[in-house]
Amino acid sequence: MTLLTVKDLSKSYKRGRPVFSNISFDLHKGECLALVGESGSGKSTLARCLLRIEATDHGSIFLNGKAIEKLSERQLKPYRKKIQAVFQNPMASLNPKLKIKDSLIDPYMQYKSELRLAHFSYTSKDAYVKQLLEAVELPVFLADRYPHELSGGQRQRVTIARAISIEPELVLLDEPTASLDVISQNAVLQLLTELRQNLNLSYLFISHDLAAVNQMSQRTMVMKDGQIVDQFEQQHLFADERHPYTKELVSIF
């Protein structure tokens, strides 16, 4: 079943310079769809447009069949809880003045009147935070720490816990392991896979790392110069019909 549909989406900045153009794809419920490409190809801007952080020039974004690209901020509120994001730099996502427990509770407080949680339960703030930290394999005592007191891997696990705290349908993962060491990268990728399966999540996984993509995704899109030049199921990564740019990426995989 299709969760997200993007049709002919385009975005330009000043002076008409295109960032990406005529992007179309479907993302199915329960899958991890990867988007790969070199830096500057438009991947992160596309993610911000899907989150409605940035506006697009034209095209459509459908979530569960509902067009959301032109909704007002008030109209968007029921949909914002269904799409969350994890970005590359966890320090930019966490308020340095808030304890971890307060950062984790914030999404729930924003949407509590609209939430029907299936996997987490809110009986008290402490119990809820404990569930979230345990879900991302962090010790509960970190709830009273501040972001600067955690390691990079721990901070990224907190941002993942925050993203899943209101049980969204879709999580946009924008280079979520790029700032981590190799050991932490592998552990976080394994955690994300387990969370997707256990919480019935769907991912758009944005990366330049084909090894991570191969580990995480069922399908992959390849972006170059603002265009989707290739789409394929993961088992066809090495097929002869792959686009020349995909083969170039594979050659350094």
Automatic annotation (TrEMBL):
Pfam families: ABC_tran (PF00005). Residues 4-250 form the ABC transporter domain. One of its GO terms (biological process) is transmembrane transport. GO terms for molecular function: ATP binding; ATP hydrolysis activity. CDD domains: ABC_NikE_OppD_transporters (cd03257). The keyword Plastid does not apply. Keywords: ATP-binding, Nucleotide-binding, Transport. The keyword Cell wall biogenesis/degradation does not apply. This is ABC transporter ATP-binding protein. It comes from Halalkalibacter suaedae. The lineage of its organism: Bacteria, Bacillati, Bacillota, Bacilli, Bacillales.
